Amino acid sequence: MALMSRRGISSERIARGVLERMGFKVLSSRQRIITQGIEVGEVDLVAESPEGEKYSVEVKAGRASVTDVRQAYSNAKLLGLKPMLICKGYSDAAAEVVAKELGVEVIELPQFYLLLEAEDLETVVRQAVMDALEDYEAPMVHIKVEANELKALKALASASSWEEAANLVGGHEKLEVYVSRLKSKGVLKPTRGFKGIRRQASRALSYLMLNYRLKRVEKALKRLLRSLNHPQPTSNR
User: Fold this and answer.
1) Which end of the chain is more exposed for a tag (fewer CB within 10 A), N or C?
2) Residue 128, domain member (yes or no)
3) Which domain holds residue 154?
4) Could you tell me the CA-to-CA distances from 14 to 44, 56, 86, 176, 192 in Å, in that order?
5) Angle, vertex CA 122, rays to CA 117 and CA 126, nearest 5
């Protein structure tokens, strides 16, 4: 719920930037609608066009439905302003028809335009990472595995015996040292027989690989946000 609330605030802030780049002047936000002394609603923004026309602006993070169009229209009428809706297009043909019939000006944002700011996107990605990691038994979120330890894990996961694994890393002494380090970090736990430690090593490798890939996805998303140099919205005036 907190994330949804933050996303709503972010959407309005970004919509404000879109309007200002189009030459509009934002006069107020979260404008209350008062009728006969009673508060009956609220609009996201009130903005003035370069031509001096004032708009009641509703902001929709996704596609606009017929209900969204009607709400934008009715709220604008109650305020005595022109209706406007900022969204990512229409949910269906009916919504587009109703918008044209009611005279609701719709500013359509490109589909790749994110009504979500960088810090919110980071929260979403981090939560997705944690949800995925919860599917694995070993809670190794902050553990760093060195190159030799990773080599030992790969040897243990692929070998059919301790002897074979030792040969892959350069001898029994080295393997014992690496396994001891991995146990001290909590990556491996005491177990009976080679099959048990091989199973743990395989699970740890899967975890580490997933964690690595998710971090790459997170970095890529951040780069994408930085490269989206404020795409120009389109209007259906």
Assistant:
1) N
2) yes
3) 120-226
4) 12, 16, 10, 56, 58
5) 155
Q: Are 108 and 87 in contact (CB under 8 A)?
A: yes
Q: How many CB atoms lie within 10 A of CB 154?
A: 16
Q: Backbone phi, then psi, for 42, in 5-degree steps?
A: -155, 140
| Residue 231 lies inside a defined structural domain of this protein | no
Count of domains in the chain? 2
